[in-house]
Amino acid sequence: MDVRSYRDLKVWQVGVELVGQVYALTRLFPKAEVFGLTSQIQRAAVSVPSNIAEGHARGSRKEFLHFLTISLGSLAELETQLMIGNKIGYLDAVLLDNVLRQCDELGRMLRSLQRSLESKV
């Protein structure tokens, strides 16, 4: 497959799907959390595919690698915040496990893309 745009990247597509899942989950959080944990979780989720897109658009392998690292950091932040949501009773364990599996898959994809780009440097 010819990658002409970040939208062609499977890792970006999976990241966008994860954002949809996260928004659906955070709708279950108490309304009082809208400006707290809910907002933090949503921002972290959105940051993952956004940084993939920005890094790809920069046009340099070195910058793309940098932005992939930021995406991985945002993914770790998201996982942590979701676990906190579970710990304080906003998110049940089954829903948490499902979304964490998606996060794991996306993390593997990001690391694989990083290794691929690093091997071409």
From TrEMBL:
The record's InterPro entries line, in alphabetical order, gives: 23S_rRNA-intervening_sequence, 23S_rRNA_IVS_sf
The organism sits in which domain of life? Bacteria
Q: Which Pfam families match?
A: 23S_rRNA_IVP
Q: What is this protein called?
A: Four helix bundle protein
Organism, per UniProt? Geomonas propionica
